Amino acid sequence: LQVPISPNSKEKLKMHMPFSKAMEIMVETEAEVGASGYSVTGGGEQGIFVKDVLKDSPAAKHLSLQQGDQLLSAKVYFDNVKYEDALRILQCAEPYKVSFQLKRTVPEAEVSVRPRVPSVDVKNPKVKVAKMCPDGAGEFN
Fold first, then answer.
1. Which of 15, 91, 107, 123 sees the fewest Cβ atoms within 10 Å?
2. Which CATH number applies to 2-104?
3. 33-53 per-position pLDDT tens digit
């Protein structure tokens, strides 16, 4: 079975699995400006899901969003952001679980390096497959 990474991609992810089994994959998209052209549904314990994606929209082309995708998190980059916009974003996020990526200056003696688990980079579209969780036995090539 060859599954396209996105409708616009010629790259495919090869998997050998029975057709009756479902597979869940975790996808992290590359950062893009102007994430528009999609709507969401759900909320609360059920989670947030992509309801619709407009064909040829930035969400479809650059972010590879598909109807039914569950949004697990969203990163907002603060490079070149106005103070007022950053403040609004942080205030809206206040009641929710948040993590930060920080740059900090520390004395060199306090730095320790921990190895990270590499992820798989897929060149077209700009998507990183971070984790694959099969819902049943399967063979991956």
1. 107
2. 2.30.42
3. 777 899 999 999 999 999 999
